[in-house]
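sorry to bug you again but im stuck and you know this stuff better than me. below you get a single protein, a line of residues and a line of whole numbers that encode the local backbone shape. mainly i need to know what kind of three dimensional shape the backbone takes. anything you notice is useful, everything is just below:

***
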Amino acid sequence: MANPLKLIKNGLIDENPTFVQVIGMCPTLAVTSSAINGIGMGLSTAAVLICANLFISLLRNVIPDKVRIPCFIVVIAAFVTVIEFMLKAYLPSLNASLGLYIPLIVVNCLILARAEAFASKNGPVASIFDGIGMGLGFTVALGVLGLVREFIGAGTLFDITVLPEAFPRTLLFVMAPGAFFTLGCLMAALNHFRNKKKA
């Protein structure tokens, strides 16, 4: 079995889904106008990813090869439904903010990619840790992206005003173009540090 810490580090740094693999971009760019939305979306996706990885790993010898993708989608959709109901019941304001992007977790290529590339080929324990690592990597990336965009665009952090009213706001950052710009800058910074570390 692969080292659990290595699997978690892999998801957080080496193969970060957002900054390195550049997958799952739809929710990454759409919901990160605030840190709360980014972290909420990241944790929801992480919960689905961990549960789906576990169940797909347990069923990997039962699912026929020809129908594995539809089976993976059914498993993922079941967990997305559970997460959506839990958000509606316990965090209705977050559910309203994320809106349609919660049901769209079903077709998030991050979850399907990990099911195909890892969970369907490895045991349950390794698959859980892979899900934890990738889920944490996705959550951290969305959280950081949301923090930067919210701070520069609205002068707040977690909806608490931190910049005085006199400080100019750059509203572009909480709009769609700001998402692309912030993501590009954060990816460039991460790649710079990774390359510097290798040298």
